[in-house]
C-alpha cells in the first residue's frame, strides 16, 4: 500500500455506518447498470466525503479498465477517458485490495488529473472491485484532503461498500447482458426476415445498417459490396452520414482500410482516425463528418469475399466482447444478404438465358415448318404479332402473353407429321385427306405434351381450330369451353390466312376478310373478340398496343 499522511491535517468527520446501510439498500434495489453505477458514485461521495468518484470496469475483450461512470469531474465524461491496462492498476494496488497515493506520484498518470476536480484533488484511493474472486473493476475516490480515509473503521467500511458495489454491478451486468442479447436476437430476427422476404439488396442492407447502428450504438455505418467483375469495393448502402462524402467509394483490394480488411480478411480497428493518414481525407467533405473511431469488417459468404461493413463513431469507441460478437454476427448476416442477392441475380440471368434459348428453339421450329410449307412463309410471325396485340387489348396479364406467344409460334407444329402430298396439294383436299389434315392438333399434343414449360402454350396448337358454335375440331368444344388463348388466336389466324395467297386461291382483300369475320362472329368466332379486333385493326401492322386503349375482356368469358 502506498501511503503518505499529514497527521496535522484536519479531515472531515466520517459519516458512519448508517449512511452505508442506506447505500447498500439502494444498491440491492437496482438492476439497471447505469443506475447502479450512479448510486455507487453518489453514495461513495456522500459516505466518504469524496470530491469526485470514478468507477472503472474490466473490458473482457482486451482486459483493459474503462471508465463506466464519473461524478464530480469538470467537463469530463466516461466516453473521453482512455482505457487503462489492468496491469497498470495491479502494480499500484500491489496488496490486491486498494491503494492510496498523492497526485504527484508517478502512478497517478492512470487517474483523472487534479485540475479536473474543484478544489483540486490532493489524494487518490483506488479500491479493488471483485466478485467470485474475479476482478471486475476499481472504485476510485478523489479528495482534497491528503490525510483522509486513515482509520481502520473507514478502511473497513470502504471495503464493505466495495464488496456490495461489486455484487450489485455484477448482477446488473448479468441482467444488462441478458437484455442486450435479447435485443441482439430480435435485431437478427428482423434481418433474417428481410433476407428471406425480399431480393432487393439495397432494402435488405439498409435494414442491416439500421439494426446495426441501433444495437451497436454508433453514429454511422455503410456497406461496400465487392464487384467481382471490376474487383472493386463499391458503396451500396449507408446510414448516419452528414454528407455524401463516401457515396462514390470505389476501392481496389488493399486500398484504404476497407481494402485492407477485404484483402487480408480481418477486422480493421482504428481508435482515432485523426492520427491516421488514410484515404478518407481524399474527400473534401469527409472532415465534416467528425468521425473518430472506425471498424472495417470483411463480409465472407461461403468462403468468398462479398464486401466490407464499415462502422464509424464520432467519439472514442471501446467495445466489449458482446458488442464485438454482435458486430461479427451482423457482418455475417450482411454477407448472407449479399450472397443471396447475387445468387438471385445469377438465377434471374440464367433463367433469362434459358428462356431466350427456349424461345429461340421455338422460333427455329416454326421456321423449319415454314421452310417445309413455303406457301405460308411469314404467316406465323404475322399471326403471332397480331395475337399478342389483341391479347393486350383484351387485358390479359404479361405472364399469359409469354405463353400465348409460344403457342402462336407453334400453332401449326403438328403439320410436321402431315404428309407432303397433302400439305402441299395445290387443290382442295378430299374428305379422307381432310381427316388426316385435321389430326395436326393431336399430333401437336403428341409432339409437345411431354415438355413441361410448353403446357400452357399448348392450348393454341391443340384448340385453335375449335369453333364458337361447337362445329370445330379436334374435340368439338363450344363457347367458353374453348380456352381463351385459342379463341383469341383463331381470329388473327383466319384473317391472315384469308388475306394471303394460297395454292388453291388468291388472297382476299382486307375488306372481304373483315366482312367474313363479321359474318362468322358468334358462329366460328367469339363475338367479343371479333368486336375488339374489328374496332382496332386497319392493317395487321397497325393494331395499337393495349396501353393506348382501355378495352378489357369480360371476366365471364374466361
Describe it for me?
There is one protein chain. The chain is α+β, with helices and mostly antiparallel strands and 558 residues long. Helices cover 44% and strands 15% of the residues. The chain has 16 helices and twelve strands. The protein has a six-stranded antiparallel beta sheet, with helices on both faces. Strand 11 and strand 12 form a beta hairpin. Helix 1 runs parallel beside helix 4 and helix 14 runs antiparallel to helix 15. The chain is rod-shaped and about 130 Å long.
Sequence-ordered SSE layout with sheet pairings:
Blueprint (H helix, E strand, L loop, with lengths): L16 H12 L4 H16 L3 E8 L4 E8 L12 E2 H7 L5 E4 L21 E9 L2 E10 L8 H46 L3 H16 L3 E8 L4 E8 L10 E3 L3 H9 L3 E3 L22 E9 L2 E10 L7 H52 L6 H15 L4 H12 L10 H4 L7 H7 L2 H9 L10 H5 L20 H15 L11 H11 L6 H10 L22
Antiparallel strand pairs: 1-2, 1-6, 2-3, 4-5, 5-6, 7-8, 7-12, 8-9, 10-11, 11-12
Helix pairs in contact: 1-2, 1-4, 2-4, 4-5, 4-7, 5-7, 8-9, 8-14, 14-15
The whole-number mean of residue pLDDT values reads 81
Largest sheet properties: 6 strands, antiparallel
> What shape does the CA trace take?
rod-shaped
**How far apart are the first and last residues' alpha carbons, in Å?**
95 Å
The quaternary organization reads as: single chain
Main sheet: strand order? 3-2-1-6-5-4
Helix fraction bin: 40-55%
What's the total number of strands?
12
Structural class: alpha+beta
Q: Low-confidence runs (pLDDT<50, min 5 residues)?
A: 1-15, 94-98, 539-558
Number of helical runs? Answer: 16
Radius of gyration: 41 Å
Beta fraction? 5-15%
Amino acid at each position: 500500500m502506498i501511503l503518505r499522511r499529514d497527521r496535522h491535517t484536519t479531515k472531515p468527520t466520517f459519516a458512519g455506518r448508517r449512511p452505508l446501510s442506506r447505500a447498500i439498500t439502494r444498491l440491492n434495489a437496482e438492476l439497471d447498470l447505469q443506475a447502479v453505477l450512479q448510486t455507487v458514485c453518489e453514495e461513495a461521495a456522500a459516505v466518504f466525503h469524496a470530491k469526485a468518484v470514478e468507477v472503472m470496469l474490466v473490458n473482457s475483450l482486451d482486459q483493459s479498465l474503462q471508465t463506466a461512470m464519473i461524478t464530480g469531474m469538470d467537463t469530463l465524461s466516461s466516453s473521453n477517458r482512455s482505457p487503462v491496462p489492468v496491469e497498470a492498476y495491479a502494480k499500484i494496488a500491489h496488496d490486491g485490495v486498494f491503494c492510496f497515493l498523492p497526485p504527484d506520484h508517478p502512478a497517478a498518470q492512470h487517474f483523472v488529473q487534479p485540475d479536473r476536480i474543484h478544489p483540486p484533488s490532493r489524494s487518490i484511493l483506488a479500491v479493488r472491485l471483485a466478485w467470485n474472486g474475479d476482478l471486475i473493476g476499481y472504485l476510485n475516490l478523489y479528495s482534497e484532503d491528503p490525510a483522509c480515509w486513515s482509520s481502520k473503521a473507514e478502511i473497513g467500511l470502504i471495503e464493505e461498500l466495495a464488496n456490495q458495489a461489486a455484487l450489485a454491478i455484477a448482477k446488473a451486468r448479468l441482467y444488462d447482458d441478458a437484455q442486450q442479447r435479447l435485443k441482439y436476437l430480435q435485431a437478427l430476427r428482423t434481418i433474417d426476415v428481410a433476407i428471406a422476404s425480399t431480393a432487393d439488396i439495397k432494402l435488405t442492407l439498409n435494414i442491416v445498417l439500421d439494426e446495426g447502428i441501433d444495437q451497436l450504438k454508433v453514429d454511422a455505418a455503410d456497406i461496400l459490396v465487392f464487384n467481382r467483375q471490376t474487383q472493386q469495393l463499391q458503396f451500396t448502402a449507408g446510414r448516419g452520414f452528414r454528407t455524401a462524402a463516401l457515396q462514390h467509394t470505389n476501392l481496389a483490394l488493399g486500398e484504404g482500410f476497407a481494402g485492407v480488411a477485404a484483402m487480408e480478411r480481418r477486422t480493421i480497428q482504428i481508435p482515432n482516425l485523426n492520427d491516421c493518414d488514410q484515404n478518407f481525407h481524399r474527400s473534401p467533405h469527409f472532415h465534416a463528418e467528425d468521425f473518430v473511431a472506425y471498424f472495417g469488417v470483411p463480409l465472407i459468404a461461403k468462403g468468398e469475399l462479398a464486401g466490407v461493413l464499415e462502422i464509424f463513431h464520432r467519439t472514442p469507441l471501446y467495445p466489449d466482447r458482446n458488442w464485438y460478437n454482435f458486430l461479427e454476427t451482423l457482418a455475417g448476416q450482411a454477407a448472407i444478404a449479399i450472397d443471396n442477392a447475387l445468387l438471385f441475380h445469377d438465377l434471374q440471368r440464367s433463367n433469362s438465358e434459358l428462356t431466350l434459348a427456349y424461345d429461340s428453339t421455338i422460333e427455329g421450329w416454326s421456321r423449319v415448318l415454314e421452310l417445309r410449307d413455303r406457301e405460308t412463309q411469314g404467316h406465323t410471325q404475322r399471326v403471332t404479332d397480331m395475337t399478342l396485340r389483341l391479347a393486350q387489348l383484351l387485358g390479359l396479364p404479361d405472364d399469359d402473353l409469354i405463353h400465348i406467344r409460344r403457342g402462336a409460334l407453334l400453332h401449326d407444329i403438328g403439320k410436321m407429321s402431315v404428309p407432303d402430298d397433302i400439305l402441299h396439294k395445290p387443290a382442295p383436299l378430299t374428305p379422307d385427306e381432310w381427316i388426316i389434315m385435321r389430326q395436326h392438333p393431336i399430333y401437336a399434343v403428341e409432339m409437345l405434351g411431354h415438355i413441361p414449360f410448353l403446357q400452357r402454350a399448348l392450348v393454341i396448337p391443340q384448340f385453335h381450330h375449335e369453333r364458337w358454335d361447337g362445329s370445330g375440331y379436334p374435340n368439338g368444344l363450344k363457347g367458353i369451353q374453348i380456352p381463351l388463348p385459342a379463341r383469341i388466336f383463331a381470329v388473327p389466324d383466319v384473317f391472315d390466312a384469308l388475306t394471303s395467297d394460297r395454292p388453291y386461291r388468291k388472297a382476299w382483300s382486307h375488306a372481304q376478310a373483315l366482312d367474313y369475320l363479321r359474318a362468322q362472329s358468334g358462329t366460328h368466332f367469339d363475338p367479343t373478340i371479333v368486336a375488339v379486333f374489328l374496332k382496332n385493326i386497319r392493317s395487321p401492322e397497325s393494331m395499337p398496343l393495349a396501353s393506348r386503349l382501355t378495352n378489357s375482356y369480360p371476366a365471364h368469358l374466361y
